[in-house]
Amino acid sequence: MTRFTVNEPRRTENQGFTLIELLVTIVIIALAGTLIAVAFGNGITVYKRAMEDRAGEQNALIVLEKIERDLRNAFFFSKIKFSGDSKKISFAGDVVAGKVEKKKPAGPGKIIYYFDSVRNALMKEEKDYAQATAEEGNEPPGPPAREMAAVESVALSYFYYDPEAKEYKWRDNWGLDETGEEKKLSPLPLGVRIEIDWKDQGRDRKLTRTVFIPVGG
User: Fold this and answer.
1) Is there a contact between 103 and 94 (Cβ–Cβ < 8 Å)?
2) DSSP single-letter state for residue 102
3) Whole-structure pTM value
């Protein structure tokens, strides 16, 4: 008896993907790529913002370091009195006068820091001895330099010892009036507290620094 056999089609191991499988794979890869790109973009944005915040804060810290250095080097000089209010401070210190190409050696003069509400900036002026000791009203202005921009406000206060109350106090001005209380104050305060508010990428930022003056009190 003769037998007939039917050969079934064999599946090869190298059989390709179907069209549907390819389409599904492409969609999955596209979605994964999109998610990775979005996550990477958000990470870059956060990193840039963090760097910008850090740069703004570092700039403010550098400015405060400059003010602290000048205040720590302040000294008593009868012709250049220490004076200040909540927005401005001036005191005797070593300044370098003259143009950049013809600067004179550092000598006694007046250092001034003040808040310019028109420019929204913290400004600095330096005056040599001749400028600083000129008669009131004839005192020529020194060349102003902008130390910090985008400043919203500056608050200065002065630390001293009250011998009558036998306690340490803060006040918002120094050497600006002729009251009896003012005459009892020492030529320089014991310290100065500096508060700076500024805008950084549209956000409000603030730093506070208290500087103690070695020759104060």
Assistant:
1) no
2) G
3) 0.71
